[in-house]
Amino acid sequence: MNRKKKINETLKKKAKKANAKLQKSNKPKYISKAERELLAEKSSENKNAEQS
Length: 52
Hints:
Shape: rod-shaped
Strand content: under 5%
Largest sheet: none
Number of helices: 2
């Protein structure tokens, strides 16, 4: 009985991990500080071009 239980537990763990990998995260993608500065710089350039 213990052997069956142990096998079932390991199979359930694997299935749970596989299912967790398939779920989509709501967390936004990481953007580095340097990239954020570049994006801010580009957006400010665009605003200046529109105003002129």
